[in-house]
Amino acid sequence: KMEVIYHGLDVDLCKKADSPVRYSQNQIVVVARLKKFKGHRFLIEAVKSLSAEIPNLKLVILGEGEEMNNLVTMVNDYKLSQWIVFAGYTDDVFNYIKGSDIVVAPSLAEPFGLTILEAYSCAKPVVAFNVTAFDETVIDNETGFLVLLYSIGVLAGKIKWRLQNKTANKESR
What we know:
Elements (H helix, E strand, L loop, with lengths): L11 H5 L9 E6 L8 H11 L6 E6 L5 H10 L6 E5 L4 H6 L3 E4 L8 H8 L4 E4 L4 H4 L6 E4 L4 H13 L9
Helix pairs in contact: 2-7
């Protein structure tokens, strides 16, 4: 017999976040170590297509890691530095989530996905690749969107829809 003990999350942390970090009118955030499997490059590709369509768009990337130089180079090559902020590591994750409109989780694989629960504790919608763990915590078209892995155009489309429909309770296609 095995008992599953789920990850603990202090849902009051978002309520205590009293200094939301807001860079722009249309802000998305990704909270993840900067590792290849976390899929930041796919989100940057999505922002590339959205930058001409969404006014005042800003992607805030929280985290540090071995992919930092590659991601910064990608942003510079695509001339996206005015749309993307590398905020680094912070213990203040909830203020960034609270200050954003959407939490995006572009991971290619995920053992748990704490970021999704952190987003929910701040009542923020999620757009994520449909991978194990996220498919257990995101109810597609209700609590967020699940996007077929590597579908950058669909990822961008769901982000755009969510930003244009910030007050919608339920997503629709």
